[in-house]
TrEMBL record:
PROSITE patterns: PROKAR_LIPOPROTEIN. It comes from Methylobacterium persicinum. The lineage of its organism: Bacteria, Pseudomonadati, Pseudomonadota, Alphaproteobacteria, Hyphomicrobiales. This is Oligoribonuclease NrnB/cAMP/cGMP phosphodiesterase (DHH superfamily).
Length: 384
């Protein structure tokens, strides 16, 4: 059964996706930085699953459940009731007190699970939907504890996973008295130093890279490394992971920095950049430094003459080789240089690549009225 995971964009969210990948073949992982974005992203998945012929599993971890998301959970249940044949499965593992409050206000008050202190669940009237809330556990630990809900095999590297989980749990629940807390702090710093600025979400290597980094750090913590030792080891760990990723790359140059080496591989990606109608390539959420290096390589290779990167906060960065970056930025209340300029979305934010395209495309390439290309179209407004 195909498995998709939607998880938070922090250490605990990535810890949960690392555990899931160790226990099952995860087809796709969607990382969500803002709880307000969970609702629309979940709605997109429900629409996709409504059309899916085969049954799938959707795993949601470490996501605060706001009103729009809970409405989506109800729509999932309604969709599943109408489905003929095998039903989709939904597993929601959360640990936020605010989620329990929201569920209660909307008539889905979480109830205690027998013989499991601190664990609560909400009933959607569908045996294929499991929603658990445990305020005494981080989502990473919950994913391991409830692996039977989605797992297909025993977890790999169990000892390294256990050390990582212990560190994440101490850090995420702010258990300063725990001996694992200093290691959790070091793990969190390593995560934020490397998670999104090198291989961005959406690229096939992204979760593989971050999970490898977290597991390697977990191994060092298991071996007794201090936070300072782990910090010193982090660069070497990262280099070894990148060496493995680029082992078959035709243009890798190991003398270059990690960012420059990865930029060559990212520039070849067909998943990070989507073509718009005028040939502009659009990316979503790329680190600004990486976007600069990748866009240069894309345009040097002749793939396009203009590239735009849209951030979740609604800012746009245009790069070009034909002086049109500024033209694009002006359409979005922006400015800058002719080949390097920026602007801002009218809505103020974007929650996904598809949403970014939906907002940028009609501004860059507005639809022409029917018949506007006709030589007789101008006569309609002629006053004579």
């Amino acid at each position: 059964m195909r498995l998709t995971q939607i998880t938070h964009h922090d250490l605990d969210g990535y810890g949960a996706s690392t555990v899931a990948a160790a226990c099952a073949e995860v087809d796709r992982v969607i990382h969500v930085p803002r709880y307000s974005d969970v609702g629309p992203i979940f709605d997109e998945e429900v629409k996709r699953l409504t059309k899916a012929a085969a049954a799938e599993t959707l795993l949601m971890t470490d996501l605060g459940l706001e009103e729009q998301t809970i409405a989506g959970l109800k729509r999932f249940a309604a969709m599943n009731r109408k489905r003929e044949g095998e039903k989709h499965r939904l597993v929601v593992l959360d640990h936020h007190a605010s989620s329990a409050d929201q569920l209660g206000r909307l008539g889905l008050e979480p109830q205690p699970v027998a013989d499991r202190a601190g664990l609560f669940q909400s009933d959607f009237g569908d045996p294929e939907i499991t929603l658990l809330i445990d305020e005494n556990s981080c989502a990473t630990a919950m994913t391991m504890a409830h692996q039977a809900l989605f797992a297909t095999h025993e977890p790999e590297r169990a000892e390294d996973l256990a050390a990582m989980i212990t560190a994440v749990d101490a850090l995420d629940l702010w258990r300063k008295e725990s001996p694992a807390f200093p290691g959790g702090t070091a793990l969190d710093e390593i995560f934020w130093d490397n998670a999104t600025n090198l291989i961005p979400p959406g690229h096939p290597w992204h979760d593989r890279f971050v999970s490898a980094l977290l597991l390697a750090a977990g191994a060092r913590l298991r071996e007794g490394a201090s936070p300072a030792e782990l910090e010193r080891d982090a660069v070497g760990i990262r280099t070894r992971i990148v060496d493995e990723l680029l082992a078959d790359a035709p243009d890798d140059d190991s003398r270059m920095t990690t960012r420059s080496r990865l930029a060559r591989a990212l520039a070849r990606s067909d998943t990070l950049f989507r073509p718009l109608k005028d040939g502009t390539l659009l990316s979503f959420g790329l680190d600004s430094g990486m976007f600069q290096r990748v866009s240069d390589r894309i345009m040097e290779a002749g793939r396009t003459k203009r590239v735009v990167n849209v951030q979740r906060v609604g800012t746009l960065s245009f790069r070009s080789v034909d002086g049109t970056a500024l033209d694009g930025a002006r359409l979005f209340r922006g400015g800058g240089h002719r080949d390097a300029a920026g602007g801002r979305l009218q809505s103020g934010s974007a929650f996904s690549l598809a949403d970014a395209i939906a907002q940028v495309e009609p501004v860059l390439n507005p639809e022409k009225p029917a018949g506007s290309d006709s030589p007789f179209a101008a006569l309609k407004n002629w006053k004579g």
